[in-house]
């Protein structure tokens, strides 16, 4: 800690991060041990976070992340979209296909940024705001592949005619970005995705991930 930082705020943010990393919540005692502070301090932190709906406690007294974080999370999309645009533009122009950034939204994949190529005679129309199940389409399947291989680089995912007849997709997950689960990909009217596209999509996903770190 430095003179310019707040110890209380730092502890509160650490509480949120600890709770976000667990599916079953944490008790006051567990938080006390992890933070290295006494239980009274933890009680005060939780009470303050509860007032802002950032933390909730279940009937057993375990603290969990509250629904208030959803309101904060909605503001992340514009920031992520802005950071991803240069890489998406480069990808769309290079491949000649519609490029997109897709993030997880509940049980669905949500396209938050889309760039169409400027020089092609035709391309797939794909709009920001488009949703689809995570287990359909290259974008969602790339995200699921990263979940299944958290310690490895899953490469890229290819699909054909899963979301739109005659369209093929290629996507690679965003890796190493805390708090952001998503993928970068392209969709094109083709029966087979050209070989170089997969590697190019992986590079674009890496560029976006670096911009978000």
TrEMBL record:
Residues 68-213 form the IclR-ED domain. The keyword Transcription regulation applies. SMART domains: HTH_ICLR. Keywords: DNA-binding, Transcription, Transcription regulation. PROSITE patterns: HTH_ICLR, ICLR_ED. CDD domains: HTH_ARSR (cd00090). Gene3D superfamilies: 3.30.450.40, Winged helix-like DNA-binding domain superfamily/Winged helix DNA-binding domain. Residues 6-67 form the HTH iclR-type domain. InterPro entries: ArsR-like_HTH, GAF-like_dom_sf, HTH_MetabolicPath_Reg, Tscrpt_reg_IclR_C, Tscrpt_reg_IclR_N, WH-like_DNA-bd_sf, WH_DNA-bd_sf. It comes from the Bacteria. This is IclR family transcriptional regulator. It comes from Streptomyces viridiviolaceus.
């Amino acid at each position: 800690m430095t003179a310019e930082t707040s110890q209380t705020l730092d502890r509160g943010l650490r509480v949120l991060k600890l709770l976000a990393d667990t599916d079953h919540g944490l008790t006051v005692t567990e938080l006390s041990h992890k933070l290295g502070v006494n239980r009274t301090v933890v009680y005060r932190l939780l009470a303050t976070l509860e007032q802002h709906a950032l933390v909730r406690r279940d009937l057993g007294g375990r603290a969990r992340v509250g629904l208030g974080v959803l309101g904060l999370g909605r503001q992340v999309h514009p920031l992520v979209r802005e950071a991803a645009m240069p890489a998406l533009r480069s990808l769309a122009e290079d491949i000649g296909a519609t490029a997109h950034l897709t993030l997880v939204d509940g049980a669905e994949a949500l396209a938050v940024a889309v760039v169409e190529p400027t020089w092609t005679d035709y391309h797939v129309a794909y709009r920001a705001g488009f949703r689809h199940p995570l287990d359909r389409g290259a974008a969602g399947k790339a995200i699921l592949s990263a979940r299944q291989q958290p310690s490895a680089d899953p490469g890229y995912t290819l699909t054909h005619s899963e979301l739109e007849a005659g369209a093929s997709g290629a996507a690679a997950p965003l890796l190493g970005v805390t708090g952001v689960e998503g993928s970068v990909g392209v969709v094109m009217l083709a029966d087979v995705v050209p070989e170089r596209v997969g590697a190019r999509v992986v590079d674009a996903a890496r560029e976006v991930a670096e911009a978000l770190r």
